[in-house]
Amino acid sequence: MNHCLLQITAAATADSTTSNHGSGGGNVNHNSIINDDILDECIQSLQHVSNSPPTWGFFGVLFSFFTSSFTACAMLFNGSWMDCILSGVLGLVVAMLFVLASYRPIYGRVFEISSCVFVSALAQALQSYCCFTSVAVSGVLILLPGYAMTMAVMELSARRVTTGTIRLIYAVFYAFLLAYGFQIGSRAYNSISEVLNGPMEQEHSDDLCGQNPISPWFYIPLLPLLSISISISYGSSVRQWCAQFGGTIIGFCLCYFMNKIVPDPPIVESTAAFAVGLYSHFVLKLTGEPPLISMAVGITLLVPGSIGVKGAYALIHQQDTNQTLFPIKMLTVALGLAAGLFASAMIVYPAGKKRTLLLSF
């Protein structure tokens, strides 16, 4: 039993972009174990999933990274068209490094930090044409640790102290890791530039941030692209896109319109998470798809990963000592999301539900 549970954990935490058989590939195996089905059959099924080729190949990975960076820069970071184009190009750089890491496991150990170094250095070189923060952070959108933070809070809320604490500490550490990569890349470029061109007045400037943002009307065609690109990064199949897009629409639209009325992020995001959770449970009732599949993309758009990376970067950079509170900000938003998801489960299952390994989904 321990051996099979170890394989279940590995399958559940495998890299999302290279996952096999879609986002819910291991769901049947989870429930088979918990329902006391034959253990050998579960192990064979898990091995089949593990040995199968990735859901999406090389070009799927390139499309996912480019499109997610391009659209997120516009919709989540208030970028201009120039910011979006440059962010998409940096997303392609990260995609190429990701492919390299998949073929060279030894490089995979430094993939995240090296990606941030390259992205930060290139964004620093292009700072005269773009907003450094928007371009750099959206360029590594797929790597942001917000979803891991939310899962950690949900684990802790469900009294799963060991796994929840590990996820929580790792999410904060991961935010520092990405921010450290940003700092190294930025300083490396500045050091080279000073040798070639003389001292610089400032390391980087965000004077172009918020200038000429894309019209919100463009969000209508961009939102499906953002949803599909994140779905691909999670290894979702085409059949699962519609359900995930529904969760994306609910989460993003609620956040967008409520932010204009209620200037309190925890309230806005917990309400959006509640709505996405309700939607995902009703999808389960209608189609039998695990709720985690339909809610994954919508919740990803609400998670506080960028808060942690930008806060850690400012702290390491000694730009704002108040950013020492960034883990608390991440935790606050994640708590709101977890509360919304648990509340939705309580509405759908007021008398409880059948025991499952998939947390509260």
TrEMBL record:
Please list the residue ranges annotated as the Threonine/Serine exporter ThrE domain. Answer: 236-346
InterPro entries annotated for this entry?
Answer: ThrE-like_N, ThrE/Ser_Exporter, ThrE_2
Cellular compartments annotated: Membrane
Q: Which residues form the Threonine/serine exporter-like N-terminal domain?
A: 39-185
Tell me what topology the record assigns in the membrane. Answer: Multi-pass membrane protein
For this chain, one GO molecular function annotation is: transmembrane transporter activity
Q: Report the transmembrane regions from the record.
A: 56-77, 84-106, 126-147, 168-189, 217-234, 241-259, 292-316, 328-351
Which Pfam family is one of those matched by this entry? ThrE
The alphabetized UniProt keywords are: Membrane, Transmembrane, Transmembrane helix
Q: What cellular component terms from Gene Ontology apply here?
A: membrane
Can you tell which superkingdom this protein's organism belongs to? Eukaryota
Q: Does the keyword Calcium apply?
A: no
Belongs to which family?
Belongs to the ThrE exporter (TC 2.A.79) family.
| Alphabetized PANTHER family for the sequence | PHEROMONE-REGULATED MEMBRANE PROTEIN 10 (PTHR31082)
| Protein name, UniProt field | Pheromone-regulated membrane protein 10
